[in-house]
DNA sequence: ATAGGGTTAG
């Protein structure tokens, strides 16, 4: 009769446990299951071992006491095995003490089991003491300790220990490399990833599937995507993990199209996916704002009965909100049987980017009432920026001071200070924001000066704007957007001479601007427009429509904001350049390609320009269309000529 | 006995 889990309650329990542990997927569970069954087919040879294989730890400990110094290696082995499975630190210590009494010098493998036990129980200090005091070590003892450091983010300790191990003459194996590569922060550490890579090559582990995926992931995390791809292409065999690692590498570096393309390619080549693969794919789809694709993934995940892992649900919340569909985000959030701080953060960020300050505050309140989840620095960031985007300045300032007084359990970081500048700036308290920057304990970054500059544009504060602008041009001279905003400020107060000198400065600094692009999703296809685009097949039609719109909009009172153009050309040329902005092209295309009354959803990779924002407002008013525009900062929901951002962004 | 990929923010 074939064995089944129900015949072995202790195994069924263990498997249950492993299933709930997200670090394992089906294949490793299966491996464990088969290994346990084979263990059972050759029955244990003592009463103590039978108790252990049934998971009856307390009874086995009693047996240990009865046997006294007659205990054998196998008995300790079985006991420690159970302690590791059940993560029992105290009981493990008892076995440890007993073992010391029995043997003058226990065998290496038993000492190594103790290291494993202590690391799994999060007692790294005990594990390290064990390692240091062992008279004899083997590669497993070293690796278990290195792995414990790596997995908990103690990169320096892990790398130090690796160096110590190499000095002692021990050769790393595939396990050592797979784990230590996850601790290589970049070429700035005292051991670089490249050094370890060369060691990997020398040891002939480069095409090992675990080592290889760890290696490619390390390169991806350092931003060296080409090297990562190189390692991936050299792997003799691919599996879920290596495929997911390279896809998520592209996604995390913002190469969203690349990630999607590679996913499709690997899928057609027979790649298996699991929930991690889909979570990474969803990150890419969030960036692309590809709602239809995202829904497909959701449907697929639902149908294929992939267990509802929190991580995957979190990505779905994020995907829906970044695609502009907060209702689905919330539905996903509400349906979750358990939530982590990331689930809350993703939802808060969603409301925040849509400018829904009330909802942000309500959700934050529920979060604080919920047991078992603590706000972290991202939570506060989301709440503060939510208050700013949602026009709840005073609430936001209260929360900041609450945090600064230590009432929230999160230390203020530079980004939080940035949010305060935003809050004050939006409220028109520009002088106060400027003073705040000067009293901050941290050196202001480009983002902070940029935030102050933005406030000065909206509240027409030329003096502070000039100050902030010049600070900003010093820290971040390559960003063309900064010159444009400073130019906006000068232009609004008629200081044309200064407008010219800003333009001059921009030319001198040879600014390389990230090319602006906007896109719109129609019938599951993304239509992308670049500034002054000539590549889209319906580009002529779009441009003709723009000219027609311009006439209509001007009659309604639209005046092109020429200070958004910093090229030295005449006014007619400037108007033409403005019409070539990618978001206007995408918006106009949306207007002609979708039926009347349907909302137009446009996405842009940079911050939306003042003139385009104004253009969209007139479109929404004249054509009675809702325009939803996501820029790299937030959503603008434009309805009947007014925008949810309150013209502050 | 020891191992690799993941979600929010920037």
Automatic annotation (TrEMBL):
PROSITE patterns tied to this protein: PPR (PS51375)
Primary residence: mitochondrion
Alphabetic keyword roster: Mitochondrion, Repeat, Transit peptide
Compartmental location: Mitochondrion
PPR repeats: 138-172, 239-273, 340-375
Gene3D superfamilies according to UniProt: Tetratricopeptide repeat domain (1.25.40.10)
Protein name, as recorded: Pentatricopeptide repeat-containing protein
Signal peptide start-end: none
């Amino acid at each position: 009769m074939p064995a089944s889990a129900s015949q072995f309650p202790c195994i069924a329990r263990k498997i249950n446990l492993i299933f709930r542990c997200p670090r394992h997927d089906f294949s490793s569970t299966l491996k464990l299951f088969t290994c346990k069954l084979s263990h059972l087919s050759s029955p244990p040879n003592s009463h103590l071992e039978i108790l252990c294989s049934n998971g009856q730890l307390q009874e086995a400990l009693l047996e240990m006491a009865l046997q006294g110094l007659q205990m054998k290696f196998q008995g300790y082995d079985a006991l420690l095995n159970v302690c590791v499975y059940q993560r029992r630190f105290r009981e493990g210590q008892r076995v440890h003490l007993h073992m010391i009494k029995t043997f003058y010098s226990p065998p290496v493998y038993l000492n190594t089991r103790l290291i494993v036990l202590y690391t799994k129980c999060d007692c790294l200090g005990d594990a390290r003491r064990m390692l240091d005091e062992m008279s004899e070590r083997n590669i497993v003892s070293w690796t278990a300790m290195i792995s414990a450091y790596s997995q908990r983010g103690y990169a320096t300790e892990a790398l130090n220990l690796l160096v110590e191990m190499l000095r002692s003459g021990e050769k790393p194996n595939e396990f050592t490399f797979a784990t230590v590569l996850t601790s290589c922060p970049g070429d700035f550490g005292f051991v670089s990833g490249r050094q370890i890579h060369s060691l990997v090559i020398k040891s002939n582990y480069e095409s090992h599937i675990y080592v290889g995926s760890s290696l490619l992931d390390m390169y991806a995390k350092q931003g060296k995507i080409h090297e990562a791809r190189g390692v991936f292409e050299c792997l003799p065999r691919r599996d879920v993990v290596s495929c997911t690692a390279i896809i998520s590498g592209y996604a995390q570096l913002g190469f969203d199209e690349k990630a999607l393309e590679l996913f499709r390619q690997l899928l057609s080549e027979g790649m298996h996916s699991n929930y991690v693969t889909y979570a990474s794919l969803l990150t890419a789809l969030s960036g692309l704002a590809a709602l239809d694709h995202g829904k497909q993934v959701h449907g697929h995940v639902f149908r294929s009965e992939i267990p509802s892992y929190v991580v995957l649900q979190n990505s779905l919340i994020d995907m829906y909100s970044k695609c502009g569909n907060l209702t689905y985000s919330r539905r996903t959030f509400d349906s979750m049987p358990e939530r982590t701080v990331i689930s809350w953060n993703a939802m808060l960020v969603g409301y925040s980017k849509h400018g829904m300050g009330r909802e942000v505050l309500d959700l934050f309140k529920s979060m604080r009432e919920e047991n078992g989840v603590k706000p972290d620095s991202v939570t506060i960031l989301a709440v503060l920026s939510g208050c700013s985007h949602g026009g709840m300045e005073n609430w936001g300032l209260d929360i900041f001071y609450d945090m600064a007084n230590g009432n929230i359990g999160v230390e203020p970081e530079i980004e939080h200070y940035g949010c305060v500048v935003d809050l004050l700036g939006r409220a028109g308290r520009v002088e106060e924001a400027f003073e705040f920057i000067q009293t901050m304990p941290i050196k202001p970054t480009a983002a902070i000066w940029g935030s102050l500059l933005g406030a000065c544009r909206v509240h027409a504060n030329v003096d502070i704007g000039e100050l902030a602008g010049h600070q900003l041009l010093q820290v971040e001279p390559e960003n063309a957007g900064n010159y444009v905003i400073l130019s906006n400020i000068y232009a609004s107060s008629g200081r044309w001479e200064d407008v010219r000198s800003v333009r001059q400065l921009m030319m001198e600094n040879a600014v390389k601007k990230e090319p602006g692009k906007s896109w719109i999703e129609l019938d599951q296809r993304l239509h992308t427009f670049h500034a002054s685009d000539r590549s889209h097949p319906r580009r002529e039609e779009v441009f003709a429509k723009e000219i027609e719109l311009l006439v209509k909009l001007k009659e309604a009172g639209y005046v092109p904001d020429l200070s958004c153009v910093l090229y030295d050309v005449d006014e007619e040329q400037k108007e033409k350049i403005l019409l070539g902005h990618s978001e206007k092209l995408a918006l106009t295309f949306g207007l002609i390609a979708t039926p009347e009354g349907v909302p137009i959803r446009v996405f842009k990779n940079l911050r939306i320009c003042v003139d385009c924002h104004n253009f969209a407002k007139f479109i929404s008013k004249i054509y009675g269309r809702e325009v939803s525009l996501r820029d790299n900062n937030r959503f603008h929901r434009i309805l009947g000529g007014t925008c949810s951002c309150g013209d502050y962004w």
